[in-house]
TrEMBL record:
This is Short-chain dehydrogenase. Keywords: NADP, Oxidoreductase. It comes from Hymenobacter coccineus. Pfam families: adh_short. GO terms for molecular function: oxidoreductase activity.
């Protein structure tokens, strides 16, 4: 089904379609992301910052919030994110991307506490540096390896809110 997380009507429409298809959702994997200036060390333009936050943070948060009512108790919410959005992995490039993913990483931590009474597990996952349009050909992980890393993070017996590092197949310390 079509979904543009930057558009409120698109989110509402997708949630309505999901409601028609299922009585509940067991697993939500949030994979929205853009990075118009990820390799640039220059300050982001206002447009790049606004567009990056609209997709990576705001849209992802509002889509997740819209689906929480349908999320099954003991379900799971996954955020495909990056450890580039953690203070210990700060770098000079990709300001808008890094800061937007830091916002999602914090949202995951907040959400884990908010849904704890429903035993919903929240898992932010760094899939690794992947050979995609964003990661480039020099990235060490294939999309298949990243998919396996994501699967490992989804199925690992993690506490809600723990950040899974797909490069090391371990909890990010």
């Amino acid at each position: 089904m079509p979904l543009d997380v930057t558009e409120a009507d698109s989110i509402s429409g997708a949630v309505a379609q999901i409601r028609q298809l299922a009585s509940h959702v067991d697993l939500l994997v949030n994979n929205a992301g853009v990075a118009p200036e990820v390799m640039s060390v220059a300050p982001p333009s206002r447009e790049a910052l606004r567009d990056t936050f609209a997709t990576n943070a705001e849209g992802t948060i509002f889509f997740t919030e819209a689906l929480l009512e349908l999320l099954a108790d003991k379900g799971q919410v996954v955020f495909i994110t990056t450890k580039m959005g953690t203070p210990q992995n700060a770098g000079p490039n990709g300001t808008a991307y890094r800061v937007s993913k830091a916002a999602i990483n914090m949202y995951a931590a907040v959400l884990a506490q908010r849904v704890a009474d429903r035993h919903i597990r929240v898992t932010p996952i760094h899939p690794g540096w992947v050979q995609t349009r964003l990661g480039g050909d020099q990235a060490p992980m294939t999309p298949e390896q990243a998919a396996e890393a994501i699967y490992q993070g989804i199925t690992a017996p993690l506490a809600s809110g723990q950040f899974w590092d797909g490069e090391t197949n371990s909890v990010l310390a």
